[in-house]
Amino acid sequence: MSANSASRVPADPASQEAADSAPRVGVWLIGARGSVATTAVAGCAALTAGLHPPVGMVTETPAFAGCGLPPLSSLVFGGHDTVDCPLPKRAEALAAAGVLPHGLPHAVAADLAAADAEIRPGGPLPGDTRTQDELVDAFAADLRDFTRRHGLSRTVVVNVASTEPVPTGPDLPASSLYAAAALRAGCPYVNFTPSSGMHHPALAAEAAASGLPYAGRDGKTGQTLLRSVLGPMFAQRALAVRAWSGTNLLGGGDGAALADPAAAAAKNAGKERVLADTLGAVPEGEVHIDDVPALGDWKTAWDHIAFDGFLGARMVLQTTWQGCDSALAAPLVLDLARLLARAHEAGLSGPLTGLGFYFKDPHGDGPAALGEQYAQLTALAERLRGDGGTAADGAGGPGEAEGGAAL
């Protein structure tokens, strides 16, 4: 956080004293002036100042006490973006839309301004003549400079930019350029989007050799979160799902990006994977994503589930999920930044399948059911609490590369 945060009266003086002595950790946001990033920065400042409780932050629950996670007050924010709207102004717009509490942008204005001062131009932009390797070098240099100037123990890169279409050519998409820069700069990495990021096959060898922990992809915040609970319920109760259809209505930058059918296809792949993994097969039905600009940062998701019961009795379950996308995503972004920082400190490397709880399409071969994913997450927490998770320890579930195994 900014130096101005130190002048505030903490909610817990003892905790604040411990936090003040903790090493500072960088959080570098790709898409740093978007709604999710702005909400994460403003929210972290609000929690640090004791203005709001940490609702939605799993790492603030008792299961993570004593894990050595970096305190929220130790986080320093920066990032890349291709837009130039300052974070304070973006936060005011979010407050006007009801995404942030009224008055919060003013209360944490210094923190927003400090983070905004650390945002660097992203790319590639139209007309940029730099090669892909030059772009990666430039992004990595920004990361190293940020880490050095602030005396940070480490910096975690988190991709919260707009969804990209699935790449079809030989060139790396922008999300993978940023992932490559994280590898080059020695930074743990989180892909909170459906974009390629570290998943791109061209990065596989470098990622495996890096010794860095990473996690992704596509944060699980709404419809798919519910599916990861309901799918196992049907399977465990031996109820035959005949069809599962869904519709998403959303606006804002994400809605505009997902109006592109190729980007929507990348998004829907994770939703289908959850059903396939929890039900054993993908039932009939599709998910439709509709851009409704008037909704702004709010979204509505409907699911229609047709299933058979005893003696073939035909039944239906319908669900409606209405929520604020940024408010759902921001606490998870803070969770993941803290967990990746601690995993890096503990010497863990490779894809952390123990963090599948947070994603629609997680790395590795871990379970898709939310309950099983939560068990893996708490096992990772116990490991971090217990012996520090040294690289020679081995790790939890199948396909786990924590402990330095290859991808």
UniProtKB/TrEMBL annotation:
Look up the record and give one Gene Ontology term from the biological process aspect: phospholipid biosynthetic process
Show where the Myo-inositol-1-phosphate synthase GAPDH-like domain sits.
222-326
SUPFAM superfamilies assigned: Glyceraldehyde-3-phosphate dehydrogenase-like, C-terminal domain, NAD(P)-binding Rossmann-fold domains
What GO molecular function annotation could you give as one example from this UniProt entry?
Answer: inositol-3-phosphate synthase activity
**Pfam families registered for this protein in UniProt:** Inos-1-P_synth (PF01658), NAD_binding_5 (PF07994)
Its family remark reads: Belongs to the myo-inositol 1-phosphate synthase family.
Q: What is this protein called in UniProt?
A: Myo-inositol-1-phosphate synthase GAPDH-like domain-containing protein
Native organism is Streptomyces minutiscleroticus
